[in-house]
Design goal:
The chain contains 3 helices and 4 strands; from the N terminus they run βαββαβα. About 40% of the residues lie in helices and about 30% in strands. It has one domain: 2-Layer Sandwich (Alpha-Beta Plaits). By secondary structure, the chain is of the alpha+beta class. Helix 1 packs antiparallel against helix 2. Strands 2-3-1-4 form a 4-stranded antiparallel β-sheet.
Length: about 100
């Protein structure tokens, strides 16, 4: 695994409930990709190959728009190591689970 990302998708929505509905559709898409991922309160972490993850980032925007959001913002953090492995989600978070 050469890359990991954290993505926070913020669709414009008329209510908190509608915002959650759109974000849920984005998360369902992420789940469908087959990549290892972890949903957090503010962002979702995903790990895999760099090119594939960049496609996921792009598609998250498109899914939010398709779900009815008139506008979407996203904040993305990327770790990329083309000649090796990046730290996995499990290595970063396992000791903090409760």
């Amino acid at each position: 695994m050469e890359a990991s990302i954290a993505i926070q998708v913020l669709p414009k929505a008329e209510s908190d409930e509608r915002l959650i509905e759109v974000v849920d559709q984005v998360i369902a898409y992420i789940q469908s990709t087959g990549y290892n991922y972890q949903v957090g309160a503010f962002e979702t972490s995903i790990e895999g190959d760099y090119e594939g993850l960049m496609e996921v980032v792009k598609n998250c925007q498109l899914i939010a728009i398709k779900a009815g959001a008139p506008e979407v913002s996203a904040y993305v953090k990327i770790t990329y190591r083309p000649e090796g492995e990046v730290l996995t989600i499990a290595k970063k978070t396992k000791k903090h689970e409760h």
